[in-house]
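Repro:
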Amino acid sequence: MLLTTIAGPLALGCGQEDGEGARARAAISEAKGQKVTISGAGELGPEKVKAISGLLEAKGQDVGAVIVKLIKDGEGAPTLEIMMWGAGLPPPHEISGSLKGAFPELAAASIEVNEMAPGTGPAPIAIEAPGEEVSAEEAKAQILEQLAAEGVVGAVQVEVQDGAEGRQVEVRIEKTVEQDQAP
């Protein structure tokens, strides 16, 4: 049995379709990627997996999309794969030490980091970001409605923050898929 959990902020074309959204989507589509594979760590619960992927995202400066897979195959220990795309990914040579320093349960784990070619990331979903004339809560509701209309399934979290630099929108979708065989 292969159990895969997919999570991450999606590369959304936020902003009006005056070119800003299209540029944001193109930047993610063309960004290089990084795959971190952690094996031999034993059982990792959902909160620990989120913490590990969160640390990697925080180590980067401009991580635009993340996919996290926890693969359980048979009776053996699971393998955790974290794939990230963006312009400012964490330095590969620092990843293993950072993870093992922050998570003692990874001390004996094998941590492998591989670069992924530009264009291998997830296809961005084009949504029209609500204007700043609507409240953050109204913007969140409109984005959730658009994602539902696009057929996006899973646990969707939308954060909308208004600040000095304008409106910032982050969308996370978590989905668990059970498959009888590897994809």
